[in-house]
Design a protein that fits this description.
Blueprint lengths: L5 E7 L6 H7 L6 E6 L6 H7 L3 E4 L6 H15 L5 E3 L5 E4 L1 H9 L5 E9 L5 E11 L6 E2 L5 E2 L20 E4 L5 H18 L5 H13 L3 H18 L6 H12 L3 H13 L7 H19 L10 H15 L9 H15 L36 E8 L4 H12 L3 E8 L12 E2 H18 L2 E5 L19 E4 L3 H17 L2 E3 L4 H4 L32 E6 L3 H4 L1 H13 L4 E6 L4 H9 L3 E3 L9 H8 L3 E4 L3 H6 L5 E3 L5 H8 L2 H11 L1 H9 L1 H16 L7
Parallel strand pairs: 1-2, 1-4, 2-3, 6-10, 11-12, 11-14, 12-13, 14-15, 15-16, 17-18, 17-19, 19-20, 20-21
Antiparallel strand pairs: 4-7, 5-10, 6-7, 8-9
Helix pairs in contact: 5-6, 6-7, 7-8, 8-9, 8-10, 9-10, 9-11, 10-11, 13-25, 18-22, 24-25
Length: about 700
């Protein structure tokens, strides 16, 4: 068997001081070095050759991808196709080189990503995985003259996602530009390359140009570029980076356009942006703080808050809820701002404590099943549901299900009514409606409960400090949607520190950064909606009525759905598309009831409540479903579609026979009853509650 050979093809310029440390750190991993020098004025070439590297000189023409490909082309001619490439920069340092080599000895794939830790402004460090290792036989080459990236289209799955494998055992430390002067020079070079080497409307150019202009504090130009990129994102319905949103928000704020600045920032948050670092974290903080200061504080003296001020209050709550404004801003300023906002609006601005609660008590003994009266039933555990928002009606629906189908008794407290979908039960506490009286009730229930089930991360409210009441055998946190996706690592660290069990949905994008076990499907109870679902059977000659509830048009690819349907109608297909937006949940269900199929979304790879509503009516639901989701539930009744074949999938359903066969094959109503019904879900929770309160033991 031929021995492993690892080559490091590099591009360098004025790295004489860095190369000895780099070569030393990579000893044990790299066998040969091939450097392309792009015009060094120091001793880089001499130092590299003294360290055993092969060096060629190639004139720099403001194109990182071209220079990297020169190096790759050269080593491809010199080495066999089974040789491994590892991409390094002069200011990189390899950690655990021997372990990485051993991982390559055992490798079964041909392309790998490595963990890279990068120095940021000040003493900060950020980490991410970068594709740095592959076999020469893959033919991987670079694209983009600035922020060059390897072309990995051959790794895409059927829905267009690049499937990466990770090389574990070691990592790379990237020192980067550690001085303000270095960062400015880098930004100026990036700006020059963007404007001379890339097309004017290339999203990659605009994103890089925006970054550079922000670093150079050229706010007027940065805002113009950012707004152009925001418009492109809106057209394509994707959010690949939050930078243009944050930049546009900041620039508009500086220009005095407070309302527009707020709207851009709110759009960024809604689309899932918010987990940035160093300069970008500072940008979102200063944008949000400036908005709050200019809209909330202007109410002083008048005792009233403008409409934009009320909107800003919502953003303040969202940002503090995500933990984004708890870092880097003076605590006294934030406390004063919160206090005044609460005074003007009459509502509570919540603050999440992301650090572990010191008050979480270790249980002195396992808590056994104790019959008590708490909700509607006289026996079982006393379970308190707590959530800042009743997202998709899950907290109130679960409370009702537990009282209806188990021996447990449940109560529910919601902090804010923004997402309440069903009628407010007199037994539910709604803090922004019930005020101090509701908070007093919540304190009593919290002290009496056997278990507190949080939907979303726990929030201290008023003088109620959850850490002083709960312990790991009295609490459970269930995550949904972007909250875990945007803050995964912080939440994981908190759960490790406190010992509290956290569970999540089956969306892999929420789990890739912090593992939480998947246990709990969403619950759907049509009796709480005032609507009884019925199957609308489609007969021969009847057009296919396919509906789509928008909520987030860009996120759900609504414009793609509209475009595809318009083309099919023009081509003569028997189709009636129905777009549902700006109506109540009850009206939405009534419209759905007249349809035969539903287009859900193509962005996340799982289904949510909207799809479940349609399944309960017997609809054929068309949407994106990921391999990860199918590995959890291979029988999920989603007719799988991608951006490339959505038109083909909908066209096939226009044939009545195909539609009927899909209805019979998918059996969506049976799935909802089995997986999402109140009885099914509450029984699952019942087992999980006993697992928690009896000491998190695996066996009875």
């Amino acid at each position: 068997m031929q021995s492993l050979h690892v080559v490091a093809p590099m591009i360098v310029r004025n790295e004489a001081d860095n190369l000895p440390a780099l070569f030393h750190s990579a000893k044990g991993l790299v066998d040969s070095w091939f450097l392309v020098d792009t015009g060094s004025t120091d001793a880089t070439v001499e130092v590299a050759r003294s360290l055993g590297a092969t060096v060629i000189e190639d004139a720099w023409d403001d194109d990182f991808a071209r220079s990297r490909n020169v190096a790759l082309d050269a080593v491809t001619e010199l080495l066999p196709p089974d040789a491994w490439v590892v991409i390094l920069d002069g200011d990189d340092r390899v950690e655990n080189a021997g372990a990485l080599r051993q991982a390559l000895e055992d490798a079964s794939e041909s392309v790998y990503a490595l963990k890279v830790f990068s120095q940021t402004e000040g003493d900060g460090v950020e980490s991410l995985y970068q594709t740095r290792v592959w076999k020469l036989s893959t033919g991987v080459r670079y694209r983009n003259p600035v922020h060059a990236a390897p072309k990995l289209d051959f790794l895409k799955d059927e829905v267009g996602n690049i499937i990466l494998n990770y090389l574990e055992g070691g990592c790379i430390r990237h020192l980067g530009y550690t001085t303000p002067e270095g960062r400015i020079r880098n930004a100026e070079r990036t700006l020059r390359i963007c404007r001379t080497k890339m097309e004017p409307n290339d999203p990659q150019r605009l994103a890089c140009e925006c970054r550079a202009l922000v670093l150079l504090q050229q706010w007027e130009e940065a805002t113009s570029v950012a707004l152009k990129l925001v418009m492109l994102f809106r057209q394509h319905g994707s959010l690949s980076t939050t930078i243009p949103y944050l930049c546009a928000s900041r620039g508009l704020l500086l220009a005095g356009e407070v309302e527009q600045s707020f709207l851009i920032l709110a759009e960024c948050i809604q689309m899932g942006g918010g987990s940035q670092s160093d300069v970008w974290m500072n940008l979102i903080q200063t944008s949000a703080f400036g908005l709050m200061a200019s809209t909330v504080m202007q109410a002083r003296g008048s005792g009233e808050m403008s409409s934009s001020g009320h909107k800003t209050f919502g953003v303040l709550t969202a940002l503090t809820g995500a933990g984004l404004l708890e870092q880097g801003l003076p605590s006294q300023t934030m406390d004063e701002l919160r206090a005044y906002t609460e005074e003007v609006t009459g509502s509570i601005v919540y603050s999440r404590k992301m650090e572990p609660y010191e008050g979480w008590r270790t249980p002195s003994r396992p808590i056994l099943h104790t019959p008590r009266s708490f909700g509607e039933n006289p026996g079982g555990l006393r379970v308190l549901f707590v959530s800042d928002l009743d997202v998709a009606g899950q907290a109130t629906t679960l409370c009702h299900a537990l009282n209806s189908f188990t021996d447990h008794g449940a109560r529910c407290c919601i902090y804010k009514s923004d997402f309440l979908q069903f009628s407010e039960s007199s037994d539910h506490i709604l803090l922004d409606r019930d005020g101090d009286e509701g908070l007093d009730k919540l304190k009593v229930l919290a002290s009496e409960a056997d278990l507190v089930h949080f939907l979303r991360f726990p929030i201290d409210v008023g003088d109620l400090k959850w850490g002083e009441i709960l312990n790991p055998n009295k609490a459970l946190v269930q995550y949904m949607g972007s909250q875990l996706r945007n803050n995964a690592k912080k939440f994981e660290e908190w759960h490790k520190a406190t010992g509290v069990l956290g569970v999540s949905a089956w969306d892999y994008t929420m789990l890739e950064d912090a593992w939480m076990p998947y246990h709990l499907p969403l619950v759907w109870d049509h009796t709480l909606t005032g609507h009884t679902p019925e199957v609308v059977w489609r007969s021969e000659g009847e057009p296919l009525r396919i509906c789509h509830a928008t909520t987030w048009r860009g996120f759900k690819k609504t414009e793609l759905f509209e475009k595809v349907c318009a083309e099919l109608v023009e081509e003569g297909h028997d189709l009636e598309p129905v777009v549902i937006e700006k109506v109540s949940n009850k009206e939405c269900l009534e419209i759905k009831q007249s349809c035969h199929a539903t287009y859900d979304q193509l962005s996340v790879g799982i289904h949510g409540v909207s799809a479940i509503e349609s399944m309960a009516m017997g609809h054929v639901v068309v949407g994106g479903i990921s391999n990860w989701a199918l590995s959890v539930n291979p029988e999920v009744p989603i007719l799988r579609a991608t951006e490339d074949n959505l038109k083909e999938v909908i066209a096939s359903l226009c044939d009545v026979d195909v539609w009927q066969r899909q209805c019979l094959r998918l059996k969506p109503m049976e799935w909802v009853e089995r997986q999402h019904s109140p009885k099914s879900v509450s029984q699952r929770f019942s087992y999980l509650y006993h697992f928690v309160v009896n000491g998190n033991v695996l066996l009875p």
